[in-house]
Amino acid sequence: MKIYITRHSLTAWNEEKRLQGWKDSPLTKQGKEDALKLGEYMKTIHINQVYSSPLLRAKSTARLIFKNENIIEDSRLKEMNFGDYEGEYIQDLKKKHDYFCLWHQPQLSFSLPNGETYEEVVFRLNDFILEKYNEDPQQTIFITIHGMLFTILHGIFLDLPVERLNEVNQEIVRGCSLSLFEFDGKKHKIDFIGKDCFLTPLKEKISYK
Hints:
The protein is about 35% helix and about 15% strand. The chain has about 210 residues and is α/β, with parallel strands linked by helices. A six-stranded mixed sheet has the order 3-2-4-1-5-6. α2 (about 30-40) packs across α3 (about 55-65) and α6 crosses α7 (about 145-155). It is globular, with a radius of gyration of 16 Å.
């Protein structure tokens, strides 16, 4: 099974450098333009089914990319729930010890106050992948997800334990860039990550650490 992946496009809170999680903010003008550019690029790639996180920023992105396709919302593709810290400014959160631990010392059982644990997110992601593979091992799907969710998915496909996610979370994948992963029922494979040749060059790397 092939899995094309994008992160939701640029939002107002991305520009304001605020943590989103299960809270939401609308796509910006640039965000909408980037989604349309990815949509043009995807016209040459056959996709059997499109799935999206039900959060507005993700499904709005998916609808701009695939204007004429049926998009299935799946709650297993939601961003990690960051609990009490959602909506806070990243610069302020960097002063908090538990936020530091989230990125620099990840553990399966760790969560921010009233948020999800890494274990809960890993479980729902694996559940989604295995379910889709069992439905049709030969299919090609597209998923529109989120920054931390992509980081955790990246770790799963590298067969990394959660405790080593700090090795792949230095940067957050760009919104509306394209990645391709594969799963054969047992082995994970990464073909490419963050292809953005169809977007305007990025001025700075994206990091929440």
